[in-house]
What does this fold into?
Amino acid sequence: MHAIKKLAIFLHCGFLALLLAGAFIRPATAAPSCDGHSSNLMFGTVNLLAGGVTDATSTISYGCSADPGTVVLLCVSLGADPNTGLYTLRNLGSGSNRMAFNFYTDAARSTIWGAVGAAGGYAPVPIIMTFGSGEYYKSATTLLYGRIQSAGQTGLPSGTYDTGYISGWPMKIDYKAVANSTSASCANGGMSNKSSSFYAQAVVKSDCRIDSASTMDFGTVFQTLSQNIDSAATITVTCNGGMGANGYKVGLGNGTNASGTQRRMKGPGGGYVNYELYRDAQRSSRWGNDYNTSLPGVGNGLPQALTVYGRVPPQSAPGIGLFTDTVVITISY
It folds into this structure.
């Protein structure tokens, strides 16, 4: 009897002890979990010869799950150029060609977007998320600002420049729970992270411009037109992109006073002086306006001077006065 009673008391006390111990068990706080990604950064068509800058924006979306009352620090990092390791000069690619651009944290494009642990002060963007009562998941967005500077890149060939050559631009979200927002720092370490990548693209437009054209002046003739009279003029063009390897062709029309393909200058009395324009100093290759007689060139984004060689052949003098003509210049690319 006594043994059974003592056993019953022992079991009862043990059960009570177990209940008391259970009263002090608290559920473990779940560590935060975060992720993020960016939409495509599309610069559209870029006219490098126009100068200036081309801007674009994309949206970075991020979200975290955590317990109510948790303060989470997120640090959004954009990688350096994978080939150069630089934050100051990131590149889009088209074949072996590279176009410089960069990411910024502000609309004024004054602060380069860096990464956790980056040298040179190129910092990531810190974000604080505070979970209130009943909140277990929060999400938000922030803007990413991109810019292409035309300066120094006018010689790039036309084409699509993008991040395909590196399989997308690297982005990383580092995160951790912190005691409060004032103690949050991306430099303190101890973070978990999630990596992703996104696409950026710019299309370089084939473009040429005719910068200037000087006057071809055959001078004053005090005699009959019994011998060749030669002169020259200069056409200055600037091109990038075009018919393969930055190619272009410059054509010259027959002039406003032509008879068929014969170029002529017209005088005050209605008379004409025949002349011709050539692509070479020997005056053997006529400079025309079709594919075969236009002058080909290769653009490098810098002004290029093209010489037009002129000649007035021997002919009967049509009278005295000033003889002129106007020729249309056409550039194809």
In short: Residues 1-28 have pLDDT under 50 and may be disordered. Helices lie at 2-22. The first strand starts at residue 33 and ends at 38.
